[in-house]
Write a structure and sequence with these properties.
The protein is α+β, with helices and mostly antiparallel strands. It is 25% helix and 23% strand. It has eight helices and 15 strands. The strands form four sheets. The chain has a five-stranded mixed sheet, with helices on one face. A five-stranded mixed sheet has the order 12-11-15-13-14, with helices on one face. The longest helix is centred in the N-terminal third of the chain and has 22 residues. 32% of the residues are buried.
Length: 321
């Protein structure tokens, strides 16, 4: 009986600790680390492509999601075009409230929020778990962008991360950022902020033993070279191409020392007429782009994944430097 009472007390204590831990967990830790959070939305300046959420109490005809057009406006029923680009949600809410009060004397409450941040995009390429296009409410630095893309893969060279400017005005040029040292010295938060349209490219180390598949495949990411010796084998390990893959225009980027080359491959010819040139041998460090039919960019837009995965990957990458 004494053991049962003790055991009950111990279990109760553990349960109480768990409840307390959950109750005191900061809200930021429970929310996704992507740019879709509403924190700071009041100060955020809306831009083209952003999606606004407008809620008008008692007026379902005016409530909904509205995408900012290239002209910087949203089209609201009854009201028409409303200029929103460069304005905060508070400013937009005030403007909408004034316009609605002209035809609805009840002056219903209006709330405006950011449903999706899309005007501030960063491209993350190379040796990361989830290469793609990411949008942020506040512009990140190179490490934050890499973390948002799932973190670096095992053979990533974080000491030679390239930041390629999306806008070369003002004399901006591609620069190399030593992210590995910044992380080791606990100063990653001091890395310079990126600008909208920038590209972060994470290279692979000289000991790379993988090939990277990107674009219209079911499971994009790195594949071990010993099991992906040719294009068909690599595609098979990646789950195969997606339904909208354009197999006639596959591109393979190959880096040998300081030399970089790009080849165009027609995989359809391999399947249709056994043309062996359509299924080339791959080499360690190759990057394979499978474009989508009708698409201009072979990348996939993928949401954020668990920060735990990114943390584990970053530790492995830093250990290899």
């Amino acid at each position: 009986m004494s053991w049962n009472r003790d055991r009950t007390g111990i279990l109760g204590f553990i349960l109480g600790c768990l409840v307390l831990a959950l109750a005191t967990t900061p809200a930021a830790a429970q929310a996704p680390a992507t740019g879709g959070a509403q924190e700071g939305a009041e100060e955020y300046r809306v831009g083209e492509g952003d999606v606004l959420r407008v809620d008008v109490a008692g007026r379902n005809d005016l409530t909904g999601n509205f995408t900012v057009s290239p002209a910087g406006t949203i089209q609201v029923p009854i009201i028409g075009a409303v200029q929103v680009s460069g304005r905060t949600t508070a400013e937009i809410r005030s403007d909408l409230s004034r316009r609605i009060s002209l035809f609805d004397r009840t002056s219903p409450q209006v709330t405006v929020g950011i449903a999706e941040y899309k005007s501030k995009k960063i491209f993350v390429l190379g040796a990361v778990l989830l290469p793609g296009i990411y949008a942020f409410a506040d512009m990140p630095n190179a490490w934050e962008a890499i973390a948002e893309a799932g973190g670096p893969v095992e053979d990533a060279d974080l000491a030679k991360v390239e930041v390629i400017p999306g806008d070369s005005s003002g004399g901006r040029k591609t620069e190399t950022v030593d992210v590995a040292t910044a992380i080791r010295e606990s100063r990653a938060d001091l890395l310079p902020k990126l600008r909208p349209g920038d590209t972060v490219r994470v290279p692979r180390g000289v000991s790379s033993t993988t090939v990277l598949l990107m674009g219209a495949v079911l499971r994009p990411g790195p594949q071990p070279i010993d099991q992906a010796r040719d294009l068909v084998s690599a595609l098979a390990r990646a789950g195969g191409p997606s339904n909208d893959a354009k197999l006639s225009r596959i591109e393979i980027v190959r880096v040998r020392g300081a030399d970089r080359s790009k080849m165009r491959v027609n995989l359809e010819s391999y399947f249709s007429s056994a043309d062996v040139t359509g299924n080339p041998r791959l080499e360690s460090g190759d990057t394979v782009f499978i474009p989508r039919a009708g698409g201009r960019n072979p990348l996939i837009v993928i949401g954020a994944i668990s920060t735990v995965v990114g943390l584990v990957s970053s530790i492995l990458a830093i250990a290899n430097n």
